[in-house]
């Protein structure tokens, strides 16, 4: 029976279309035969010894030669800090020059690994790198929001093999982020509660959609998941900004993220996916009412005209079934 | 130079990333060799003589045997009118039963045609069919919004060859539609103007992004286009609902839509695309402040982690250049 479900965290409706629904294993795509990927490629700008193929690094964990993670400016940036910040208004046509930062986080020296296959320590290095860059760019003048994200596979918008994430720092608060912040603020004004804390509490109580729970984090499929196998990774401690994560939380997040992605990797045979960190804009305090999280969005279906014409998603997997499927994948 | 641009019509920012920008002809994808598509397939549920392969039709133009367009319920509906409408609330978990309508509009009896290749009269039949179904479903109890859309090609979410559109009627107003309506209402309250009329007037004055203009319609690429080659088809007459379109406007819209899609077809070698009609929710009057339009969204690039993490799009084509390119395609 199809059903529309309301997502309280982001104030959106989703159609859970069980009429066209698939069982969890139906989402495993037949893969083309891919030749094994080597540990090193001499034309890959992100492989060790090829550092000169990318712009000079802005951050590194480890030695110049034996590094563990590296951050470099994106060679084809969407925004650039070489630009002066300038606002123009010509009648209804408002613009801001493309000032900002666009960086690539090289997650690991090995060309052919994945977070799902890394050691906990290696994933910890990635999260630590995220935090360091986030903190450093938060202090940069004219930066309003920092979006950390990962694209894995062609359906997720990348054909680069070498494991990498990206970071874009923008000179405006993206309207959707503003709108979610307003929603969280009003929710707090009305109920005295952080909507993130409350949704987490209710999902843990309901249990059916929880995939992983540790002392400090929970991974669950939202009641109104946008896409099949969407997972949210929420810290249990109330924190508005990702930058507030402490050392033991970095350690725990690394372990939980690795398990969540391993379950996807094993359960659905290495599907394409994006993940993104949803944090409060950098100049907002929002101490009381915003809650950062990491959202994992597998790219198993293609949004079409209905989604583009209504902003509403059709999800063809029942979140409870998908969560049970991943809970049962041993990692 | 990259630039952020503000879209007044929908209150969103877009990054026009000229640093990673492409020239218009770079968007032409190398097509796989496709065998010619036949005019008829005996296993296609939308070809004449195969009518029994789909559920009984809800509307038809023409005779039962020599029809011009047909409307049938979607065999795998996202929403269904067999459902009773029922709201459930369980703590924070709100749902509505999947009541609604999901129909397929078979645009033409020929299996291997496209709107770009049809006669004006054939396209007129499609628009007339849209209007008839829109009007009929507007009167149905519990229907709040009607979304008419088209998916063309795998990147746009369909692998069906037979030319078809779809219609989904929902028991709630999708939040994004509500939010755009609120924006238009406030804009009217503040300025006394319909934001659609005003954007149209300014785009016609600016000229650079206009692709087609007739007495009653304009086709332009928005100043802050979400995706490369996005086109809006706006009626010049102020109308909140698509259902208000009159006979001569149907005739003119058919001709303009056909030319716009032909330009895409010829200019970019039959790219995958969606289009969708953005109309006011059915129980709103909005006479003064809402303006319906048709939005054409070619699927030439893949939204990735940044778009999913911020709601903001990165467009790698300059709308002025893309508009000039399509203006110069003869049809």
Brief characterization of the structure:
Two copies of one chain form a homodimer. Chain A is α+β, with helices and mostly antiparallel strands.
Q: How does this model look, in words?
A:
- The structure is a homodimer of 331-residue chains.
- The model of chain A has no long low-confidence stretch (mean pLDDT 95).
- The first copy, chain A, is α+β, with helices and mostly antiparallel strands and 331 residues long.
- In chain A, the strands form three sheets. A ten-stranded antiparallel β-sheet of chain A has the order 3-4-7-9-8-13-14-12-11-10, with helices on both faces.
- Chain A has helices at residues 120-138, 175-191, 195-206, 247-267, 305-310, 319-327; strands at residues 3-7, 12-16, 59-62, 67-73, 87-90, 93-97, 101-106, 145-152, 164-170, 210-213, 217-220, 231-235, 273-278, 293-298, 313-315.
- The longest helix of chain A is centred in the C-terminal third of the chain and has 21 residues, at 247-267.
- Chains A and B meet through strand 1, strand 2, strand 6, strand 8 and strand 9 of A and strand 1, strand 2, strand 6, strand 8 and strand 9 of B.
- Strand 1 of chain A pairs antiparallel with strand 6 (93-97) of chain B.
